[in-house]
Structure formats: C-alpha cells, structure tokens
Amino acid sequence: MRTVIVTGAARGIGLATAKQFLALDQFVSMVDWDESELKQAAGSLKNTLILPLDISQPDQANQIIADTLATFGRVDAVVNNAGIADFSSIETTDFATWRKIMSVNLDGTFLVSQAAIPALKQTKGSIVNVASISGLRASTLRVAYGTSKAGVIQLTLQQSVELGQYGIRANCICPGPVRTQLSLAVHTQEIIDAYHDAIPLGRYGTENEIANVITFLCSKNARYVTGQVLAADGGFEAAGVGLPALRKSKS
Questions:
Q1: pLDDT in tens, 6-31
Q2: What is the set of active-site residues?
Q3: Which residues of 29-67 are buried (b: 16+ CB within 10 A; e: fewer)?
Q4: Which residues does 58 contact at the CB level (< 8 Å), separation at least 6?
Q5: Measured at the alpha carbon of residue 181, what is the angle toward residues 16 and 12, in degrees to the nearest 5?
Q6: Are the beta carbons of 30 and 41 closer than 8 angstroms?
Q7: What is the four-CA torsion angle of 48, 52, 57, 58, rounded to 10 degrees?
Q8: Which residue has the higher pLDDT, 140 or 119?
Q9: What gap in Å lies between CA 221 and CA 211, rounded to an integer?
Q10: Which of 15, 37, 130, 152 could form a disulfide with 81 if both were Cys (CB 3.0 to 4.6 A apart)?
Q11: Half-sphere exposure of 28 (CA within 13 A, CB side)
C-alpha cells in the first residue's frame, strides 16, 4: 500500500489529512512533537506509525524517514503541515521568536523534504507543503509567520524544478482562515465577522476541506500537477482590497 508522512498530525489540518489518507487505505506516519496529544489523536487508528519527533532538528527529520521505511518499506508522499504561529509586530518580534518560527515552518519543511528525496525517487512520489494565505499577502502581526510561509512557497517552486527530473512532484497549498481549534481560540467574534465580510464565500474553511485538496495533490489524479501554489481560501486572496464595501453598496 501507499505510504504517506504527515507532519503536525496531532490536530487540525494534519489530523484531518491523516484520517483521509487512512480512509483511502494508505499507511500513514503521523508526526508531531507533542507526544501526548499525538498518541491521543491516533487513538485506535489502524495502519499508522506514531512518531513524536521535532522536524526542526536534522537528526530527527532523518529519523522520520528511516522509521517510516523500516515500518512500511516505502514513502509515496510527504505532507509538510507542521507549523507554529506568532502574532507580533515587526517592532516587537524578538530574534528568538523569529528563529523559532523559521526553524519549524521553513527549516523543518526543508529538512523533512530533503531527507525524503531518496525514498521519493523510488516511488516517483510527491511533496505537498502547507503554507498560508499569509505567505501570499501581507497581514497585520504576522511578520515572522508570513515571511516563513512565503519561504515555504518559494521552497516548493525550487523542489518542483529540481526534483521533477526524478518524477517527484511538489505543490503548495495556502489555506485561508480555517475553523481549527487554534483559530477559534485566538479569533474574537469581531475578527471572525471581519474575515467573513472579506471572504467571498462568507465563511471560514474546514479542516476537511483543506485535507481534500492535500489528498488530491498527492494522488495519481494530480500526476501532471507540480510547481503549483493553490490558495484554498474561499476567494480571500482574489478579493483584494475594498470588495466588502463594494458588496455592501450593491446589496
């Protein structure tokens, strides 16, 4: 059976993605540095390998691939979903915070992908990197997070160009606002209302809707799709500036 590695699999989009791959009868290596939550999330799920490892550490990134190969014998896809966020301004973001965000969001994505290349060559597999709409458009209080995700987007393009010769595909998904446990915890009702007003579809996405796109990009149905940056955002990026006011004036 096909084998997929999903990082940041203990919750949110990562967990939803892992469950969708399992529903497709694929093996899944579930990676997260939060061991207790990862074990709870995996629960009684079958065909999984639980890897409580830190993707920002080179030796642990290598271990993810080695343990997956030792257990399942192959790697068909890598979903680099793990990421952390910080909501600070340019003036107040200290360097330790900057480095922490970069080490997970950008360094970790690079390290896991690089470690997986030999295995992906064997299967002509695929990489899906989870960036963010914040990597495509600037947003308040996201200097480190947004910059890290913009780096993930460029990394994806590099991967697609350099690894295409081996039959390895690399694509990037940029979720807009999604109804995750984290977003619901930090977004006030005022923020939620403002997003709903700015998003043409008028709502947040769901974890499963983002997972749908990820599983498609990893599938044979997307075998001629590589080097693409796809915003799954309800039209948020396309809306640009001023559309909420224009919609109100026409209603």
A1: 999 999 999 999 999 999 999 999 99
A2: 145
A3: bbbbbeeeebeebbeeeeebbbbbbbbbeeebbbbbbeb
A4: 111
A5: 20
A6: yes
A7: -30
A8: 119
A9: 15
A10: 130
A11: 28
Residue type, 226: T
Half-sphere exposure at residue 112, Cβ-oriented, CA atoms within 13 angstroms: 36
Quick: pLDDT tens for 180-214: 876 777 788 888 888 898 899 999 999 999 999 99
The contacts of residue 130 (CB under 8 Å, 6+ apart) are: 8, 13, 79, 80, 81, 83, 152, 172, 173, 175, 210, 214
- Over residues 100-122, the mean pLDDT reads 98
CA distance 196 to 248: 13
Max Cα separation, the chain?
Answer: 61
Edge-to-edge strand ranges of the sheet holding 169-175: 48-51, 27-31, 3-7, 77-80, 126-130, 169-175, 229-232
* pLDDT bracket for residue 4 (50, 70, 90): very high
